[in-house]
Amino acid sequence: MIELFNTILYEPLFNGLIYLYHVIPGKDIGIAIILLTLAIKIILFFPSLSAIKSQKALQETQPKLEALKKKYKNDKEELGRQLMKFYKENKVSPFSSCLPLLIQLPILLALYQVFLNGLITDPTTGLLVPNQLNHLYGYLKDIYSNTPIHSMFLGFVDMAKSKNIILAVIAGALQFWQGKMMVTMKPAIKTAGSKDEDRAASINRQMIYFMPVITVIFGYQFPAGLTLYWIVSTLFTIVQQYYFFRKRNSNPNPNSTLPSIPTTNENPR
């Protein structure tokens, strides 16, 4: 499995990074990382957009779903039928946001490995270590078996070194911005499942602040090249979300209002 992963994903992406580094004037590895990240994000644009749409739709239907769960909490069989009916009528699915992400996951994992391990060089010669050199194709392998890789971005940020607090903080700030964009304004509490809705909203608010902190911690520990990838990827996602929300707000769907759900506590049967 590891060999298959390397052949299909890791090596093409690693060679793409080194090729971009090779052809960019000035041979700036940071710019190569930015260009490779943007290329992958463009290729994955529509699967990512589909995940954003599905996630937003699930957020907006959450109050109604909580009301259904509350109403039929003592009848699991009927709850299942009502949930299926609800998903069908509102054209949403609890798995719709997961599938696009699962499609992207192997590529993102390979990119992670490229930016984490791809810049490992011999500290005395600057040459790629043999383990990484063996992943290069043809003429790139011939060139960089005796040509050092310079890991500097813009001449002063070493992409191979960790503990870059500035990049880590930027990554955390962008993560916070992205999370805030996905938050739905909390509606007035009018559903039977309002307490559950309160708990879900509270968890969402906590995650908005928790994830940026985690991003800063990991961004500080990882090599700067991986943190730069994180920054560019998150910034691209923010632009993508802005595009989706702006297009969505300029073309409102008059039929998007969700059907009301009775809040009575009577036995449905």
From TrEMBL:
This is Membrane insertase YidC/Oxa/ALB C-terminal domain-containing protein. Belongs to the OXA1/ALB3/YidC family. The chain crosses the membrane at residues 29-49, 92-115, 228-245. Keywords: Cell membrane, Chaperone, Membrane, Protein transport, Transmembrane, Transmembrane helix, Transport. It holds the Pfam family 60KD_IMP. PANTHER family: CYTOCHROME C OXIDASE ASSEMBLY PROTEIN COX18, MITOCHONDRIAL, OXA1. It is found in: Cell membrane; Membrane. One of its GO terms (molecular function) is membrane insertase activity. Residues 30-244 form the Membrane insertase YidC/Oxa/ALB C-terminal domain. InterPro entries: YidC/ALB3/OXA1/COX18, YidC/Oxa/ALB_C, YidC_ALB_C. One of its GO terms (biological process) is protein transport. It is a multi-pass membrane protein. One of its GO terms (cellular component) is plasma membrane. The keyword Cell membrane applies.
